[in-house]
């Protein structure tokens, strides 16, 4: 089994979660990405969110939500995405970057347009009363 180590930002407002769709992709994903070199979770989160959403994470606001695993979309069976999720505040207004086609606020009814690991995260957030 191969594990892809990713860090993600959980940003919820009015019962909806901030999601992104990368260029050339059909599904929406919780923003974030893969760790580079020996980055900490926080360093990865700050870098990835700056790259994808053009906003700056406020480091003191970073709070662990949970770690979730599922089969990686479009990958061979046994390739697993491990998504370590944090909530955090940021400065700025999210805007699409070079790699992001669209930013959209999703709710629990949008399970058919998100990745497998995001479905697990959405279910957890819905059961916690955070996601409508």
UniProtKB/TrEMBL annotation:
Write out the entry's keywords from A to Z.
Answer: Hydrolase, Magnesium, Metal-binding
Q: Which PROSITE patterns match?
A: NUDIX, NUDIX_BOX
A Pfam family hit:
NUDIX
Provide the Gene Ontology terms for cellular component: cytoplasm
Names of the cofactor(s):
Mg(2+)
Gene3D superfamilies (UniProt xref): Nucleoside Triphosphate Pyrophosphohydrolase (3.90.79.10)
- What InterPro entries does the annotation carry? NUDIX_hydrolase-like_dom_sf, NUDIX_hydrolase_CS, NUDIX_hydrolase_dom
Q: Which GO terms describe its molecular function?
A: 8-oxo-7,8-dihydroguanosine triphosphate pyrophosphatase activity; metal ion binding
SUPFAM superfamilies in the record: Nudix
Signal peptide as annotated in the record? none
- UniProt-listed GO biological process terms: DNA protection
In this protein, which residues make up the domain named Nudix hydrolase?
A: 1-132
Protein family per UniProt: Belongs to the Nudix hydrolase family.
User: Matching PANTHER family, A to Z?
Assistant: 7,8-DIHYDRO-8-OXOGUANINE TRIPHOSPHATASE, OXIDIZED PURINE NUCLEOSIDE TRIPHOSPHATE HYDROLASE
What is the name attached to this protein's record?
Lysine decarboxylase
Origin species: Flavobacterium anhuiense
